[in-house]
Amino acid sequence: MLTETDRQVQEQTGKQATCAIASVGVGSFAQSVAMHYKSRAPSATVVTVEPETAACLKSSLEAGRIISIETGDTIMCGMNCGTVSSIAWPILRDGIDASMTISDTESHKSVQYLHALGVQAGPCGAAPLSALKRLCETHKLGLGSESVVVLFSTEGSRSYSVP
Predict the structure, then answer these.
(1) What is the DSSP letter of 54?
(2) Residue 30, SS3?
(3) pLDDT tens digits, residue range 10-31?
(4) Is the separation of the CB atoms in 6 and 43 below 8 Å?
(5) Among 11, 97, 98, 107, which lies 20 to 30 A Cα-Cα from 136?
(6) Mutual orientation of helices 28-38 and 2-13 as an angle, nearest 10°?
(7) Angle at which helices 123-138 and 104-116 cross, to 10°
């Protein structure tokens, strides 16, 4: 999937991705994204996104070790995980440039935006867009007009309780 993404990005932009944003549950998919984008030259910036109520990776990165957290309810139920994978941890610890959290409201607004464009994403699938919006608002990571950002949508449309 990552190789196919690279091919499509190259075909559509004539460039390589400069930033990739991946959702995190226990971190297995984000591990693959980090390994892929950090193994190239030049490497791309890798950003992860989690629900505010289930930020096991962000908490572990801040602690410098895997820690388990108690999670709360979230519409991003596929990301509602309390412990990072021990296999994924070393790659995530060393390969993530930024770890972000978003609210259910932010995810829901991104779902609505994507649906208006014909993209049938669910809350987990829309989370990377919410992270990108926040990055652009805060001017973090130096994203600009020359940036090529890949958002990985990991969930199709589904019903959920609107926050």
Answers:
(1) G
(2) helix
(3) 999 999 999 999 999 999 999 9
(4) no
(5) 11
(6) 50
(7) 100
Q: What is the pLDDT of residue 43?
A: 95
How remote is the C-alpha of 79 from its chain's centroid? 10
Q: What percent of the chain has pLDDT over 90?
A: 93
**Per-residue pLDDT reduced to its tens digit, 51-106:** 999 999 999 999 999 999 999 999 999 999 999 999 999 999 999 999 999 999 99
Q: How many CA atoms lie within 13 A of 159 on its CB side?
A: 0
* Token pair of 142 as six digits: 């130096």
Residues β-bridged to residue 121 = 156
Q: What is the pLDDT of residues 27-64, one digit of tens each?
A: 999 999 999 999 999 999 999 999 999 999 999 999 99
Q: Which domains does the chain have, with CATH numbers?
A: 18-145 (3.40.50.1100)
Region class of 142: left (phi > 0), else alpha (psi between -120 and 50), else beta: left
Encoded tokens for 117: 């464009």
* Residue that is written with structure tokens 């994924």 in the block: 88
Longest CA span, the chain: 44
Residues in the chain: 163
Is there a contact between 155 and 44 (Cβ–Cβ < 8 Å)?
A: no
